[in-house]
Amino acid sequence: MIKLPITEKAQEYGAKVKASSDARKQLDEGWQQHFDIEIEDAFRAGACYVMDEVNKPKTLEPSTMALTLYLAARDKLAELEKRPKNNICMTENQKMRLELYREFGEDAQKALDFIMAGDNKREVSNPAPVASGKTEVENGLYLIYEDGYKKYTGEVSESDAEGVKYIGIVHDGHSFAVTLKDLGQYALVHEIYKCPSEHPLYRRRKCDALLDWDCVERTKHIQEIGTDIPLADGEYIPSLPMLVLMCHYADKGLNDLLKSVGGEPFDMDECYWSVAESGSGIAWNVSFNNGYVNRGNKCYSGVVRPVAAFNI
Questions:
Q1: Does residue 2 sit in helix, strand or coil?
Q2: Residues linked to residue 284 through DSSP beta bridges, in sequence order
Q3: pLDDT the model gives residue 312
Q4: Phi, then psi, of 264 in degrees rounded to 5
Q5: Are 78 and 188 members of one domain?
Q6: Is this model's pTM higher than 0.70 or not?
Q7: How far is CA 305 from the centre of its chain?
Q8: pLDDT over 60 at 268, yes or no
Q9: 58-82: b or e for each residue (b if 16 or more CB lie within 10 Å)?
Q10: Are strands 133-134 and 140-144 parallel, antiparallel or unpaired?
Q11: What's the gap between Cα 173 and its chain centre?
């Protein structure tokens, strides 16, 4: 891309673009193709597009189209400057996706598929350190790989099953990843007496626990008290709403999908721990045979199925 100050870009257009109907048409198409990506890059991309596509005569005359576009972009940039900054920190995958979109527009996914050399047509995921993300992606189950993800449509080919790291669940704006296997039966904590009688993380009412998606701080709290649950880095004991969704999807494709990729289906006769504590001695769990949400003694054994981040 040409790196020019914005005022010089207008001069570049005026000096290099032939003021004919054909040149104006080429310039307009180049502009529209890149307008919604980024105003400054639109100028550079448009300049490259025009200089590559339009024959350059020996005598060039200024283009009023260039001036018009410059003025429009200047106003647009001024408008953007007034908007509040979000200070978004982009991951490497997000940066790659942005560059692909800038270069290929609506064909960015095709370019990504070619780069990944896959028949899987995977999207690039965002590995964030928070275990429950907010998303506008379609509800359902997803195959999660080291380098991306793919929506589960009811069938899993051999190539689809290869390299699956987690199963993703997306439901009503929330997303998280589920490990392929249970860790086994564990008490939530070693000793109840180490649990404080009161704590801001306690959710004594079921309605409150069902609306609390955070599992990161709660898992840290359980680990500080003391537990034998062998969690891997970046994995957590699920929050109560996460566990309820696992139970919900277990007989709606999740167990079948887990078996298809070499994982372990949920045991529908077992009770699974959530990380949601109700008080010093009790915590919330879910019985997968009937879907009931119960409270149990933290020192009693329950099955643990960890979760991880799936922010897309």
A1: coil
A2: 295
A3: 76
A4: -115, 120
A5: no
A6: no
A7: 21
A8: yes
A9: eeeeebebbebbbeebeeeeeeeee
A10: unpaired
A11: 11
Average pLDDT over residues 295-301: 95
Q: Which residues contact 306 (CB under 8 A, 6 or more apart)?
A: 178, 179, 183, 231, 232, 235, 236, 237, 238
Same domain, yes or no: 77 and 99: no
Per-residue CA distances from 28 to 17, 69, 213, 267, 277 (Å): 12, 9, 48, 60, 60
Each residue of 32-65: pLDDT tens digit? Answer: 444 443 444 445 444 444 444 444 433 334 455 5
What is the average per-residue pLDDT within 245-251? 97
Query: Which of 96-110, 201-215, 288-302 has the weakest average pLDDT?
Result: 96-110
For residues 217 and 264, state if they share a domain.
yes
Does any domain span residue 32?
Answer: yes
Q: Are residues 212 and 281 in the same domain?
A: yes
Amino acid at 281: G
Answer whether residue 141 is part of any domain: no
Give SS3 for 303: strand
* C-alpha torsion angle, residues 111, 141, 213, 297 (rounded to 10): -140
For residues 234 and 4, the model is more confident at 234
Helix axes 39-53, 64-82, angle to 10 degrees: 160
> Is 41 found in the same domain as 111?
no
The domain in which residue 102 lies consists of: 89-117
pLDDT of 87 above 60: no
CA distance 218 to 280: 13
- SS3 label, residue 232: coil
Residue 274 within any structural domain of the chain: yes
Same domain, residue pair 222 and 289: yes
Amino acid at 33: Q
Last residue of one domain, picked from the residues 82, 107, 134: 82
What is the distance between the alpha carbons of residues 262 and 251, in angstroms, rounded to a whole number?
17
Q: Is the dihedral of CA 243, 245, 246, 250 positive or negative?
A: positive
Looking at the structure, tell me whether residues 187 and 106 fall in a common domain. Answer: no
User: How many domains does the chain contain in total?
Assistant: 3
Amino acid at 52: D
